[in-house]
Amino acid sequence: MSGEVLSQNEIDALLSALSSGEMDADELKKEESTKKVKSYDFKRALRFSKDQIRSLTRIHENFARLLTTFFSAKLRTYVQISVASADQIPYEEFIRSIPKMTILNVFEVPPLDGRLIIEINPNIAYSMMDRVLGGRGISVNKVENLTEIETKIMSQLFEHAMDNLREAWGTIADIDPVLSEFEVNPQFLQMVSPNETVVVISLNTQIGDTSGMINICIPHVVLEPIISKLSVHYWMQASKKEREPEELIILEKRIKSASLPVIAQLGTSQISIQEFLHLDVGDVIQLDQSIDKPLIINIGNEAKFTAQPGKVNKKVAVQIMEPIKGGDSDDE
């Protein structure tokens, strides 16, 4: 039986069609018994679940926000970057989908295996470079004739931007992106086999008046060691990290060496504002503390002990008499 649940309106419509003769119950039984075949393209092997794709989308939404902040400060102009889509496709299809001449940055992400590609639309790349050089952010697509200086400026700009990728990926892996190649022709870039599944995250990018796409291509081999961390169970579980014994010893030493204010409260008094304004040197304020009652010792802001005043080696001192019990802050 099908696991689909019909609404009451759908049930009523179905019963009405059967009773009026518009539909035949025997034909429905035959249709249900017929095997339904679903076509499967082995070239487009789906190696990531929808749940894992959603997790990657969330990670790169955070990356897009970080990039927006980074490029806004770096280029000093309006920048808006957001995730447009996240899909899993064969590597060959990704190469065919990008321009024949474009800006390709290949990054290694140790300790993970493999490499990932950051493809930047030439319009976006040239607009960024123009802003870095003090221009208005005008885009001139001449990717075939990049000079050595232009190549260096672009590669350094995107290399510094990858610090944000490290931060965005921090929830699933501690990576250290390193730029390994800078290429303009995707046909010269054969990282994995053509049928290898890759995840492509496309970012809508607006730099001033120029818009374009930034595509992040992540092969399956890169994500394979951390694929279990892309599930909802990993994100939702309340995992508590147990401290090592050495950490507990260090923590205990630091707590023991922490300083706390110890205050002996000699007493309190209340006076009017008028009396306070007329206080002068030599005036005496009478406290409400009786000399035959113990003093209160405060540790921080908490009353912890009673004590009696006295002297030790001609210095004023207090002697602890007993702890004050009661209250939520007391240890039993």
State the shape: elongated
Assembly level = single chain
As laid out across the biggest beta sheet, the strand order is 1-5-6-3-2-4
Q: Low-confidence parts, pLDDT < 50 over ≥5 residues?
A: none
Query: Can you write the helix and strand succession as a string?
Result: HHHEHEEHHHEEEHHHEHEEE
What is the CA–CA distance across the termini?
63 Å
**Cα-atom Rg, whole angstroms?**
35 Å
Helix content: 25-40%
Number of domains: 3
Structural class: alpha+beta
What is the number of strand segments? 10
Q: Give the class-level CATH name of the largest domain.
A: Alpha Beta
Number of helices: 11
Mean pLDDT: 81
CATH superfamily of the largest domain: CheC-like
Q: Beta fraction of the residues?
A: 15-25%
**CATH architecture annotation name of the largest domain:** 3-Layer(aba) Sandwich
The name of the CATH topology of the largest domain is Chemotaxis protein chec
**Biggest sheet: strands, sense, closure?**
6 strands, antiparallel
